[in-house]
Amino acid sequence: MTQLHVTTTINGDAVEYLCEAEETLLDVLRDRLGLTGSKEGCGSGDCGACSVMLDGRLVCSCLVLGAEAGGRAIETIEGMADGERLHPLQRTFLEHAALQCGVCTPGFLIAAKALLERQPDPSETEVRYWLAGNLCRCTGYDKIVRAVMDTAAEMREANDAA
């Protein structure tokens, strides 16, 4: 099989990799690049565990071919923290115990970050609607929704104070 050479940007860094034409972006991230934060939950785009941002758009990386990422900007869960400093969503998820096994958590965090970048003051209904593409098999969604709502309020307060 012929491998394709792909040049892209992942979490702000220029990255080059080789991949097979049929290889998913999720497989490339996990198996070729060692970015194992995104999880495979279903392989069919139904659970959101593999969610990443592709050119600012929330996508399931199991539905995108690795070759399609060429020349595009990818944001994964690994790029969410600032060094050792957690993103406010990551910290609030921990504080609210809005996670259990961790398979769905990266997808929820990326989806929540995408929402707050578009809508810094979401209603609870908007949060629930936005996160509807992410499934959690371990816990209810209330802690997750509360964590997102509290993070939104905290981030707004920080922006108002600045």
Task: Give the SSE map.
Layout: E1 3-10, E2 13-20, H1 25-32, E3 51-54, E4 57-60, E5 73-75, H2 88-95, H3 105-118, H4 124-130, H5 142-161
Parallel strand pairs: 1-5
Antiparallel strand pairs: 1-2, 3-4, 3-5
Summarize the entry for a quick read.
With 162 residues, the chain is an alpha+beta fold. The protein contains five helices and five strands; from the N terminus they run ββαβββαααα. The protein is globular, with a radius of gyration of 16 Å.
Largest sheet: 5 strands, mixed
Structural class: alpha+beta
- Which stretches of 5+ consecutive residues score pLDDT under 50? none
The tally of strands reads 5
* Distance between the first and last residues' Cα: 54 Å
Helix content: 25-40%
What are the secondary-structure elements, in order, as H or E?
EEHEEEHHHH
The proportion of strand residues reads 15-25%
Task: Note the overall shape.
Answer: globular
**Strand order across the largest sheet:** 2-1-5-3-4
Q: What integer is the average pLDDT?
A: 95
Per DSSP, the total helix count is: 5
Using the CA coordinates, give the radius of gyration.
Answer: 16 Å
Descriptive notes:
With 162 residues, the chain is an alpha+beta fold. It is 35% helix and 17% strand. It has helices at residues 25-32, 88-95, 105-118, 124-130, 142-161, and strands at 3-10, 13-20, 51-54, 57-60, 73-75. The protein has a five-stranded mixed beta sheet, sandwiched between helices. Helix 2 crosses helix 5 (142-161). The longest helix has 20 residues, at 142-161. The chain is globular.
